[in-house]
Amino acid sequence: MPANIFEKPVFQTPRPWWLPIYTLAVALIGLFFLQWPPAGVVYLFWWEAILIVATALIRMLFALQGRPFGDLLWRKAGLLVFGLVMGCAFILLTVTFTLKGFSEGNYAAGLGGVAGQSRMLMLGYGAGLLLHYFGNGRFKTADPMEELGLPFAQLLVLLALLMALTQHLIPRTGDAQEARLVGAAVVGVKFVIDMFFARTWRFFQEAGGGKGT
Fold this sequence. Notes:
The protein is an all-alpha fold. Helix content is 70%, strand content 0%.
């Protein structure tokens, strides 16, 4: 029955297990089929940083921790202020520390289809939120602090990775094809980090005894 679709194991994970694969495919399509320079990966990461912060704030705001919504209002108000300040800081740092990827070697030229790829990322994050948070009932038992903290930790690690890409690796590459391969390698490392944090989130859920239903 359609009403029981979210009881299937594929939807019971606390985070969308398929999202790292999806974002990897979006980036690789841009690099090798749309022939983006590595700056396209940087641009997608800017957009993904915004999506990570936005979804983390939404998850935090609607996390009930097994209690009525009103019981956590003051706690969530404080977390919201903290999350907005830290989220804006992360996004600003992401843009500031990765601008070098656009300023050297004209790597920003030729970003065809970037708007479509950005919409694909938004669709993926939106689907993950609906299917693996609201649809499967995860929000009923979710801890607001956990829902905010783990995505920010993931974003911090990814920011360090992108800094290395744009400040050290890309400017040293000899041509566009070599730089594109460097970008693909970093996308692969990002995929590993995304999968690690997806598993970390599930570990926290299992340790807390939550089933997301």
